[in-house]
Amino acid sequence: MSRTTAPLSDSACRSAKPTDRAYKLFDGDGLYLLVQPNGRKGWRLRYVKPDGKEGLTSFGNYPVISLADARRKRLEAKRLLAEGIDPVEKKQKAKADAAIKGRTFESIAMAWHKQMSTKWAPGHSKTVMSRLKTHVFPLLGARNIAELDTFDLLQPLEAIKLRGTIDVALRVQNYLQSIMREAKRSRLITANPAYDLEGSMKAPRVVHRPALPLSRLPELLVLIDTYHGRALTRLTVLLSLHVFVRSSELRFARWSEFDLKRGTWEIPDTRPALDGVPFSTRGTKMAGDIHLVPLSPQAAALLEQIHVLTGKFDLVFAGDAKPWKPMSENTVNSALRKMGFDTKNEICGHGFRSMACSALIESGLWSETAIERQMSHKERNNVRAAYIHKAEFIEERRLIMNWWSRYLEANRQEHVTPHEFANQTGANVTRLKTKRGATE
After folding, report:
1. Are 417 and 217 within 8 A, CB to CB?
2. What pTM was computed for the model?
């Protein structure tokens, strides 16, 4: 009596862990999941060809190809075999026919990617290709692009959605729409089936990073000053509060970006890569631009103290054990937790940006454009952006950074509202602006 195989469950596929050697999880009727030592899981079907020889075909990787998808593909293969057709030979022939015409989805997508990469940063180009190879090509790569409909294009998106990565699904949806749009322009297809993908994926709800109310600034400053951890960590947290830049802008900073005599920090859009450090090329989010951070006297003084600790290294915020690598991305938040803050609900490092922005707006002293430029926010109105691109508002931004640092100092003993502090300093600011206008 032949032994029967218990069908697989999705949980068994999901929980299968890699070992030193590849192993198989059988679903029955020739279908099995091959678990590789590197953690990759791929579907395989062993079958008997019409000529009696043994055949083996691949259905793609799990979880991009779900258990239900693999079973459906097995059924399709069995139907072809019942008609005397080898599924592997059919797939190879279809791919060859489409390739002769230059119309496989993969060939069109690769051409699209090559063209778009001239406009993208290298890191982004690599990410797009990785997503296509992981999520799209296993399902659609060998298909003739003219045969694809909206349902076909939805399959990789639904597979990504099941994994819970809606943001990735939305990005892949954009790739598909762009690829199919280019195919229509090239007259490879007569109608764009990706048009109806719009609305199939809902963007995740935006969760704002926690930030303390400004009334708790005295508490925050006292806890930073009395922090008993690594000296560089304390200085980093305090500097981050004064300059309110993004985490990657701060963490990957090099000493060569600073001019402490002039009181400036120039953050490039791309930095030299650090071996073994993911995303180390990140600079400012404003692609193709340099974000200039005027340094207040207080920020410059903090950098002088940091220079004593890490000035002999390239990295400003060097790691403790490995100074050629930056400190951990969790350093600032970890320090805040040690101070007693809940970094999920009260305050996190990124929340310093919200606190600074709120104070600057509430002061009523500064133009919205100058504040947005200092926050390194990209102008969304393309026409307006064309006019203000070269307008750095650098003098006003230097006043902004000096005012913010003085505002922090004023809150060391007791809380002062931005409006109250603005009334104390507004006359000086107005006088400086008037003087600047007279010399222009």
Report:
1. no
2. 0.57
